[in-house]
Amino acid sequence: MSERHVLLVEDDPDRVMLTKRALSDAPSRANVEVAETGDEAIDRLGEGTPVPDLVLLDLKLPGSDGFDVLDAAGADDMPMVPIVVLTSSDEREDMVRSYELGANGFVTKPVDFEEFREVVRHIARFWLEINTPPRYGG
């Protein structure tokens, strides 16, 4: 299987490290790019940039938040990319709003590292191995 590209939108360096470590343990080979702000994520999803195979999106970000990223990703000129909200929030209103804005999944981050690693591995396995994504470039 060819290497897949994941855009991780996360401002906490510890969570970035843990997520990268969890993805490196997953069977799918994933090149992880990090966007630390919502504005950076929106730019990375814009025209002329490589389209990631998966976006893992935190909601609480400096500048534009995760909801702004979801809103921008839903624009007609943006590529169709699976976006999984991976957040510490367990608020129903955050979940509902995320889905209303086009999120493909909503996962509350487990506090325990082993549980977090397993959750990230399951997300990666489904979205990078099992799911059939839209194809770009012909």
Characterize the structure shown:
The relative contact order is 0.19. 40% of the residues lie in helices and 18% in strands. The longest helix is centred in the C-terminal third of the chain and has 18 residues, at 113-130. Strand 4 (83-87), helix 4 (92-100) and strand 5 form a beta-alpha-beta unit. It is an alpha/beta fold and 138 residues long. It has one domain: Rossmann fold (3-Layer(aba) Sandwich). Strands 2-1-3-4-5 form a five-stranded parallel beta sheet, with helices on both faces. The chain is globular.
Helix/strand layout:
Blueprint lengths: L3 E6 L3 H13 L4 E6 L2 H7 L9 E4 L8 H8 L9 E5 L4 H9 L4 E4 L4 H18 L8
Parallel strand pairs: 1-2, 1-3, 3-4, 4-5
The CATH architecture name reads 3-Layer(aba) Sandwich
Uncertain stretches of 5 or more adjacent residues: none
Total E-strand runs? 5
The number of helical elements comes to 5
Describe this structure in a few short sentences.
With 138 residues, the chain is of the alpha/beta class. 40% of the residues lie in helices and 18% in strands.
Defining traits:
138 residues, single chain, alpha/beta, Rossmann fold, globular, 5-stranded parallel β-sheet
